[in-house]
UniProtKB/TrEMBL annotation:
It comes from the Bacteria. It comes from Comamonas avium. Belongs to the adrenodoxin/putidaredoxin family. PROSITE patterns: 2FE2S_FER_2, ADX. Pfam families: Fer2. This is 2Fe-2S ferredoxin. Keywords: 2Fe-2S, Electron transport, Iron, Iron-sulfur, Metal-binding, Transport.
Length: 112
């Protein structure tokens, strides 16, 4: 079990939230299970970039990103060194702090 602290996001979780997540769950699944409806356009198959999150704490406890994920992340809005595709980032035992970026690649296209 790990605790994921979700930082406030105006649309998905304005107050922020604390989730208890069993090890082996992806961050994306954890968010969806807890009613935080992050986009996941490719249905968690590592083929889009809409599930991008930034792992502010605990990044190194996650499984390493595969090359495919890294390539997709290059297209993410607001990419940071601690960015992950949440559907590919598997929670271990360590607590995490996760930020959902303000925009996803879909929003970015609509707005600019
Ligand atoms: S849901 Fe598409 S890459 Fe995660």
């Amino acid at each position: 079990m790990a605790v994921i602290k979700i930082l406030p996001h105006p649309e998905y979780c304005p107050e922020g939230k604390q989730l208890e997540v069993p090890a082996g769950t992806s961050i994306c699944e954890a968010l969806l299970d807890n009613n935080i409806k992050i986009e996941h356009a490719c249905d968690m198959s590592c083929a889009c970039t809409t599930c991008h999150v930034i792992v502010r704490e605990g990044f190194n406890s996650l499984n390493a990103a595969e090359e495919e994920e890294e390539d997709l992340l290059d297209r993410a809005w607001g990419l940071e060194p601690q960015s992950r595709l949440s559907c590919q980032a598997i929670v271990a035992q360590k607590d995490l702090v996760v930020e959902i970026p303000k925009y996803s690649i879909n929003h970015a296209k609509e707005n600019h």
